[in-house]
Write a structure and sequence with these properties.
Elements (H helix, E strand, L loop, with lengths): L1 H10 L8 H13 L6 H43 L3 H8 L6 E11 L2 E11 L1 E3 L5 E3 L3 E7 L7 E2 L3 E3 L5 E3 L8 E3 L4 E12 L3 E8 L2 E7 L4 E6 L2 E6 L8 E7 L5 E14 L3 E8 L10 E4 L2 E4 L1 H12 L1
Antiparallel strand pairs: 1-2, 2-5, 3-4, 6-17, 7-8, 9-10, 10-17, 11-12, 11-16, 13-14, 15-16, 18-19
Length: 311
């Protein structure tokens, strides 16, 4: 009977517990309880278990293959939705975008020693071989650390109202950024050190893969199964649709939807940034910003969503 019980334990991980098939096998085991020498039936049962194990393995493998096929399909759909020369050029900007290096320094502040965050920028260019190269880093600014807030890395490229892109770490109060509808004034750029895991969001355009990193509570307007909603980065899933924005030289707004092809956690331990606007509006859409072409929320919106989730 002990031998039969071991067979019972083998079946449960195969998800046959509670099924009609498992019921039939349980009857066989009960019949064997009075005759442990009936090896023929036990061997048949073990053969069936082995077959179930093989089927279970094949199902897992098939699921992995289906996910990869879906990922490639979404990449082609994204490429089709981005089949516009101007939009393609906008996306290409982020293949060799400026790098922002963040370093900390201690300096005198109000009679004491305080920590400052200093940002250095490296300008990227494409060489004759089509490879991305970077110039020597240049010091941009050093800011006193006031708050621990933020949602994106310092090299996240923000679309300003003058139709130029700049790393968020280099932005200053009073500058105007574009929220997808109108110009918004920056009140402050807040920064802090993020110890938690970040969320890496992947978007494919055909064979081109782009990945962007966010803190877990960074907010996005998302379309999921034809429903519009606001989700934090940690709640995003493969197949969710994000909004891609850009503007041409005539300030014509270009908008399209792109599918997420992968979402995963990556280590944190970096300085992150977010924009607080001067707008007193309680309308969530007024607090969007465009980073690396993707529409997401600024610090005002992040606080709105956090407050709603507390209720």
């Amino acid at each position: 009977m002990k031998y039969a019980f071991c067979i019972f334990l083998q079946l449960c991980p195969l998800l046959v517990c509670g099924s009609e098939l498992f019921g039939n096998m349980l009857n066989i085991l009960q019949n064997l309880s009075g005759d442990e020498n009936n090896k023929n039936d036990i061997e048949k049962l073990m053969s069936r278990i082995k077959k179930l194990e093989e089927e279970n393995y094949n199902l897992k493998k098939e699921k992995e293959e289906q996910v990869e096929i879906m990922r490639k399909f979404i990449g082609l759909v994204n490429q089709y939705s981005m089949d516009n020369s101007l939009l393609q050029r906008e996306v290409a900007k982020f293949q060799c975008q400026p790098k922002t290096i963040v370093k900390t320094q201690t300096k005198e502040h109000d009679g004491g020693i305080s920590e400052y965050i200093c940002t250095y920028t490296q300008i990227g260019y494409v060489d004759e071989n089509g490879d991305c190269k970077y110039l020597q880093e240049e010091l941009k600014n050093c800011d006193y650390v006031k708050r621990i807030k933020g949602c994106v890395p310092g090299d996240h490229m923000i679309l300003l109202d003058d139709n130029t892109w700049h790393p968020i770490a280099d932005l200053k109060p009073g500058q105007l950024y574009f929220n997808g509808n109108k110009a918004v004034t920056i009140h402050s750029v807040e920064t802090g050190f993020e110890k938690k895991h970040l969320i890496e969001v992947e978007i494919m355009f055909g064979n081109e893969v782009f990945t962007y990193n966010y803190t877990q509570n960074h907010v996005f307007p998302v379309k999921r199964m034809y429903h519009d909603m606001h989700l934090t980065a940690k709640d995003l899933k493969m197949g969710d649709m994000l909004t891609y924005f850009s503007r041409d030289k005539e300030n014509y707004v270009l908008e399209t939807q792109v599918y997420i092809t992968s979402v995963r956690q990556i280590p944190g331990g970096i300085y992150v940034y977010n924009i607080r606007s001067t707008s007193p509006s309680k309308t969530w859409e007024d607090h969007y910003m465009i980073g690396n072409g993707i529409l997401s929320g600024n610090l005002n919106l992040q606080e709105f969503v956090a407050k709603e989730n507390e209720i």
